[in-house]
Amino acid sequence: xxxxxxxxxxxxxxxxxxxxxxxxxxxxxxxxxxxxxxxxxxxxxxxxxxxxxxxxxxxxxxxxxxxxxxxxxxxxxxxxxxxxxxxxxxxxxxxxxxxxxxxxxxxxxxxxxxxxxxxxxxxxxxxxxxxxxxxxxxxxxxxxxxxxxxxxxxxxxxxxxxxxxxxxxxxxxxxxxxxxxxxxxxxxxxxxxxxxxxxxxxxxxxxxxxxxxxxxxxxxxxxxxxxxxxxxxxxxxxxxxxxxxxxxxxxxxxxxxxxxxxxxxxxxxxxxxxxxxxxxxxxxxxxxxxxxxxxxxxxxxxxxxxxxxxxxxxxxxxxxxxxxxxxxxxxxxxxxxxxxxxxxxxxxxxxxxxxxxxxxxxxxxxxxxxxxxxxxxxxxxxxxxxxxxxxxxxxxxxxxxxxxxxxxxxxxxxxxxxxxxxxxxxxxxxxxxxxxxxxxxxxxxxxxxxxxxxxxxxxxx
Length: 461
Prior knowledge:
Layout: E1 14-18, H1 22-33, E2 38-42, H2 45-54, E3 59-63, H3 71-82, E4 87-92, H4 97-105, E5 110-113, H5 118-148, H6 159-171, E6 178-181, H7 188-197, E7 206-210, H8 216-224, E8 225-226, E9 238-239, H9 241-244, E10 249-253, H10 260-272, E11 274-276, E12 283-285, E13 289-294, H11 298-303, H12 309-315, E14 318-321, H13 332-346, E15 353-354, H14 356-364, H15 370-384, E16 389-390, H16 397-400, H17 418-432, H18 437-444, H19 448-458
Parallel strand pairs: 1-2, 1-3, 3-4, 4-5, 6-13, 6-14, 7-10, 10-13, 15-16
Antiparallel strand pairs: 8-9, 11-12
């Protein structure tokens, strides 16, 4: 016989039942114990307070009216104070439904009317249990992400991201020019800031400037500054970004969009360190760490005479290439949970959980807009979500309905590598079971000795 909705095999919960009618409490307890839940029964809010202070529960089931009319509301308040990660279900008589509905505004998970339909009751408790477990799972995963994979805000454990981080650590302390390459939306500015933070200039200014869409005259003024009277409207001297970043790091984004005439002027500044403001012949010495980025293929542009080869050699002291998201799919669950936690915090909401089917769909999508598109999608899902769990139907249509679209690549999961998929499955299952190896082995369908061997093999604890 299939288990009621919401219960996952092996995930049995700690339940506190608060009811001054002993027989009724026993009936509820027996209905839940048959599913494997561990139930504790107390007869009122006073007794419940001790249990909630010193025990650990996943779900609290409380009668709304006991020794006092507001006893159930008191239990709800105690649960919110002492067991904030638990869910509370109110049991109410028909006449108290308005009060029970008000309790939902106070943080209750749901309510159920007497006389109980035990099948409905079990399903309701099981759904509350799964909500709690999913929240715990994602909270643990979020903690893992932020503590283990949060170098300079860079999220990921793929081989590609590990190589990026290693290169940042190697080149950061030097003054060598760094060229960051990668598709749009991969996070080039984040990498540039990390290079600055790893340098001995970290306490100095970090200045960014985007070369895209700038006319030659405006670009020259922005980079090198101008003297008073240099052109109409130049009412006072103004320094450019090179002078402003003196002693620190200057990051020029989209350097491949810079006009050829400006490329030669930039090359001269990089070679001499001298900046000449518009409207003057006086050279000013600057000392900047130069970092640039592009989503264009500069080697192809050199062949087409759209980018100077000598400038390319000057800016490419060390190249950091950021792989597109479709080439590091194993990082997607970490990125999704990181983004969900951030956007939920902005909304002052609990971090939502993602069903397995939802996460698989997000991993399978090709993300032409890379991390930027993924984060925007997660933000949309978090904002529009109406419950604690995000399911497939909550995924935006352009991603959820894309089975035949070139941007959906379900078969690419195999390309991630069996070892990496297995390692991530073990990591997440251990988080879900709170580190219980016996439960993790059962859920993963392997023996405990096999799991222990793989933990050592993958360096997991």
